[in-house]
Amino acid sequence: MSMDNDQDLKPLFQRVEPLGTVLQERIMNQIREKQLKKERFFVKYKVSILLMAGMLLTASTGFAAVQYHSLTNSKGEVLYEEKSSTEAPHSKYSSYTEDEKKRIHMMNEVWVNDIKPGEAAIIYIVPNNPNHVIDIKSNPHSVKDFVKLQSMVNVPGLPLAKELSGSGTYTFKNASVHMERETNVNPLTEQEKADIAKKLLEKAKTSGKDYALMPVKFTDNFWLSTVYYTSGNKKVSLTILNNEDHGSVTSYWDESMGMTSRKIEINGQDVLQKTWNGGSSAQLDWVYEEPTTGHHYMLSLNSTKVDIAAEELIRIAKTIIPKADSK
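RESULT FIELD:
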């Protein structure tokens, strides 16, 4: 999967901040379960959201062209589409100066080591920063209490379930929730950025460190959440991307991964089913459009840890996806 610098990707995905109609970078990270619980990473735009969907799966030695699909609403508007990774935007990292690369590398280290789960901060790096650039970074909240999760992740008309039903019962275990930052709602002006950089430079000098941090508050709105459910040694995850009314979501796939994609119907709803390794690993993607506001939510149900067959995911999805006639 292709990605832009900042290793928001700090491993895999990166997010661009949705500030007005201007695309400003915000890179988010969470490393699923191992290595700070690495999770999947997303790139989000204000006008349209780019969902970088590179899966952490072993690449297939074979190669076959993948048939890509899209999902639309009742008006025929495309809400989600798949494309080949060859069409993905190119990384800007190669065009960065050595100073920029060194600053970004150190910034990522500070991000991982100094910003705790559920925290956000402005980071100022002293070395290799002649233009006095600041970065705003955050880490997701780790939530183990279901009632708290419900208060943080509220999708009108689509309440979260504490249990999911398939061939067995999958019970809520924990969740990772990314909340919007206040700087998303009220973007900093260039003068404010310059003033903060000056203040943090002085703070770094006083502390004798090569960097300084300034806390940033979150809003009450989530933009991404992954909820984990378990049934014995089986584990599934439900990811919800809050797209609001910002256009379509696009996922880019590496065709060497041996993925098969097809469109199916569950409860009268179009769903994209992806399978790997002959169906032993699977994923279901669909879009929920909230009737009153028209806001869009991209949902993805995945099998994790022990392989769960595609048929089992479909059984579970039938308990999550509203029936078409109830919309």
